[in-house]
């Protein structure tokens, strides 16, 4: 009478796992023919060192080829199913053989197996995407590191401005409006000079965004900062400086963290919603504050003659305020371009999905 070893089994949608409890097995005789697995080997089992054998007719068709793995304590057999499916039992016969039991170390129910399969598929897709990105751009992580640090520095700079202006407003009230430039200008100069990289980055292809909106915003802000405020001492003590600086920093303390998270492929839904919504009130207010500063600067440029152009031989002078009027008109076009750009981005990221009617 032949001896039968203990056999433990588990499954996935595409494979079967069999574990034969025999130790010190050498050259086992294992075959699969006509959907029946035949096993015969000499080893140490429940009845000591003997020859053990068994046959199993599988519940559904399997591939004749299999993978075996011998260890000192057991024999592992991996069999592929011909059809990816979840079996209700291992063998064709309804009554389970007495020597067969579930392998609880590997046992999963169908829902757990589906989750495992889905996780593996997601990992495979992620790996493929990562490898394809690396093949396309070997300097991807270097670029991401640079962009992350750039956005971090800008976030810290504008946060410093925003927090300091807020604290001063609570302490000094309206009086804080009139020395905003003297206390905040150095940091604002630093941040706005650094912002020129937002034009360079898309030009060299390190950021996938349109160059025109960045060009309009950076040049427009720097014109206000360096020409309107920086060149006129009279403008530096006006309250409009507070509103310009506060509105700029209010936008940027949201925008730069959003870009930082994008560098590490992280999407925080609340921050995304705020980033693509807060511009709706703040951009018009910022544009209005900038326009007010230009209008307030016109009489000062007329009186001082700064940047005026003397035309020879007609002996008359063109005041810089004439160019400021042209600038205000061009600002309307620039604002329209940027608003259209932001609106498109908002629709793409937050656009409502049409619900299907059942």
Describe the structure.
It catalyses: a very-long-chain (3R)-3-hydroxyacyl-CoA = a very-long-chain (2E)-enoyl-CoA + H2O; (3R)-hydroxyhexadecanoyl-CoA = (2E)-hexadecenoyl-CoA + H2O. The chain crosses the membrane at residues 145-167, 187-207, 214-233, 239-264, 276-298, 318-339. One of its GO terms (biological process) is fatty acid elongation. Pathway: Lipid metabolism; fatty acid biosynthesis. The protein is of the alpha+beta class and 358 residues long. The protein has 2 domains: 7-105, Immunoglobulin-like, CATH 2.60.40.790; 137-357, no CATH class. Helices cover 53% and strands 17% of the residues. The chain contains 9 helices and 10 strands. Helix 5 packs across helix 8. It starts with 6 loop residues before the first strand and ends in an 8-residue tail after the last helix.
| Count of individual helical segments | 9
User: End-to-end distance, in Å?
Assistant: 65 Å
- Poorly predicted ranges (pLDDT <50, ≥5 residues)? 353-358
Helix content: 40-55%
What portion of the residues fall into strands of 2 or more residues?
Answer: 15-25%
Order of helices and strands: EEEEEEEEHHHHHHHHEEH
Q: Mean of residue pLDDT? A: 89
Q: Provide the gyration radius in Å.
A: 36 Å
Question: What sort of overall outline do the alpha carbons produce when their principal axes are compared?
Answer: rod-shaped
Secondary-structure-based class equals alpha+beta
Could you give a short description of this structure?
The protein is an alpha+beta fold and 358 residues long. The chain is 53% helix and 17% strand.
